[in-house]
Amino acid sequence: MIIISHRGYWHNQEEKNTETAFIRSFDMGFGTETDIRDCNGKLVISHDIPNGTEISLDYFLSLLKGRDLPLALNIKADGLSDLLVSSLSKANVTNAFVFDMSIPDQMSYVRENKINVFARVSEYEKTPAFYHESFGIWLDGFHSIWYDKSLVEGYISEGKYICIVSPELHKRSDYKDLWKMLKISGLSVSTQLMLCTDLPEDARDFFKEDI
């Protein structure tokens, strides 16, 4: 299983999606999830509507310094695919996937087939859009761990990669229940599985024999 940090590896709320959090994550060998928006014709890193002070996507990619670490790119606005693919190509970044764009925008990503797309699945979206065209699944649980081993194994058997959202991202305290399920079930040894977490060091220690 691959562990990725959520908005970088931050130690306080103000560090989310900042250079400090990204450098810490990359230097410790973790890939990261982050949010992509556009501002004045350029792509920037921002979860909320940008105000012009955000770091650019190009600068974010430069922080990798050539390291082959996975990037999960949360697409927060439509029509960004051409600029995004161009930036990734210039930075020679291939270990990346996109998710969470609108359905019409997702259609353009899968049709152009220039970057890996993960389809969202949650308790509200149990039938993923463009499942067969998607490279993987972004598996979320807003209120509970509603899925089980068999669902994850089913995706794996069909060749999909899966990134599971750890419950603390939704301010829930049952994340250790999920981690235990992944470990006890043997799912954590799968190279097709990723875990997106606010606690990457804790997760690495917990799964140290499996990753």
Describe this structure in words.
There is one protein chain. With 211 residues, the chain is α/β, with parallel strands linked by helices. The protein is built from 7 helices and 9 strands. It has helices at residues 19-27, 57-62, 81-90, 103-112, 149-157, 175-185, 200-206; strands spanning 2-6, 31-39, 42-45, 71-75, 96-99, 116-121, 136-139, 161-165, 193-197. It has an 8-stranded parallel barrel with strand order 1-2-4-5-6-7-8-9, surrounded by 4 helices. The radius of gyration is 16 Å and the shape is globular. The mean pLDDT is 97.
Present the secondary structure layout.
Blueprint: E1 2-6, H1 19-27, E2 31-39, E3 42-45, H2 57-62, E4 71-75, H3 81-90, E5 96-99, H4 103-112, E6 116-121, E7 136-139, H5 149-157, E8 161-165, H6 175-185, E9 193-197, H7 200-206
Parallel strand pairs: 1-2, 1-9, 2-4, 4-5, 5-6, 6-7, 7-8, 8-9
Antiparallel strand pairs: 2-3
Q: Which tags fit this structure?
A:
7 helices, eight-stranded parallel barrel, alpha/beta, 211 residues
The major β-sheet equals:
8 strands, parallel, barrel
Order of helices and strands: EHEEHEHEHEEHEHEH
Shape: globular
The total strand number stands at 9
User: Which residue ranges are poorly predicted, with pLDDT under 50 across at least 5 consecutive positions?
Assistant: none
Name the structural class.
alpha/beta
User: What percent of residues adopt helix (DSSP H or I)?
Assistant: 25-40%
Strand order of the largest sheet: 1-2-4-5-6-7-8-9
Radius of gyration: 16 Å
What is the oligomeric state here?
single chain
Ends apart, CA distance between termini: 5 Å
Portion in beta strands: 15-25%
Q: Helical stretch count?
A: 7
Average pLDDT number: 97
